[in-house]
């Protein structure tokens, strides 16, 4: 497999034992390791999220906290994550049984590392070895496309919709006209409680 070529400002952050993943137009840095799993012939890769790579450096994982006077402001990605969460088809959940929420949260956070979901629920660092992430993600997108006519690629345009928490009051950032049209087509309302 050939080595991917990234812009210099991204390549500069990649060190031994780390890997870079590109999601949309963003780059994310992960600590790359592996572990032995009983019953598996080869070690299983384990990637641990470090942060988002920007031209100014690495934005460490976790919420962005901005002090404003005596208030604390937290900004997390909301549009893409919430849409996938709401549109998750029952037919995809059923075969996973009680594990469906963990698998869905894991998929969403892998697709959107700045997601609001870890703020409200504990997301596993990895899935049980018998759950195949790639096939689950593919099955989820296939069912969403069949039932709602939309997949992750189209929903990515909602990634710039943020949940903003100001002293425990939650707000949704501005939604563009194009985003509004997609939300209306899917009959989705991005409200926070």
In short:
With 193 residues, the protein is α+β, with helices and mostly antiparallel strands. It contains eight helices and eight strands; from the N terminus they run H-E-E-E-E-E-E-H-H-H-H-H-H-E-E-H.
Keywords for this structure?
193 residues, 8 helices, four-stranded antiparallel β-sheet, 34% helix, alpha+beta
List the helices and strands and how they pair.
Blueprint: H1 8-11, E1 18-23, E2 26-35, E3 44-54, E4 57-60, E5 64-68, E6 71-77, H2 79-87, H3 90-96, H4 100-111, H5 117-120, H6 133-148, H7 152-155, E7 162-166, E8 169-172, H8 177-185
Antiparallel strand pairs: 1-2, 2-3, 3-4, 5-6, 6-7, 7-8
Helix pairs in contact: 2-4
């Amino acid at each position: 497999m050939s080595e991917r070529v990234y812009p210099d400002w991204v390549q500069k952050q990649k060190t031994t034992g780390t890997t870079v993943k590109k999601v949309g137009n963003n780059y994310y840095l992960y600590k790359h390791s592996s572990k032995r799993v009983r019953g598996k012939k080869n070690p299983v890769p384990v990637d641990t999220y470090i942060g988002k790579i920007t031209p100014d450096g690495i934005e460490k994982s976790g919420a962005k906290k901005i002090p404003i006077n005596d208030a604390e402001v937290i900004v997390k990605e909301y549009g893409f994550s919430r849409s996938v969460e709401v549109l998750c088809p029952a037919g995809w959940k059923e075969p996973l049984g009680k594990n469906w929420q963990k698998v869905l949260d894991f998929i969403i956070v892998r697709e959107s590392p700045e997601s609001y979901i870890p703020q409200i629920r504990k997301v596993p660092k990895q899935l049980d070895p018998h759950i195949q992430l790639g096939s689950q993600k593919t099955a989820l997108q296939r069912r969403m496309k069949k039932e709602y006519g939309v997949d992750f690629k189209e929903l990515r345009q909602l990634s710039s919709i943020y949940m903003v928490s100001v002293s425990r009051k939650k707000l949704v950032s501005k939604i563009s006209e194009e985003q509004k049209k997609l939300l209306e087509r899917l009959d989705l309302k991005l409200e926070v409680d």
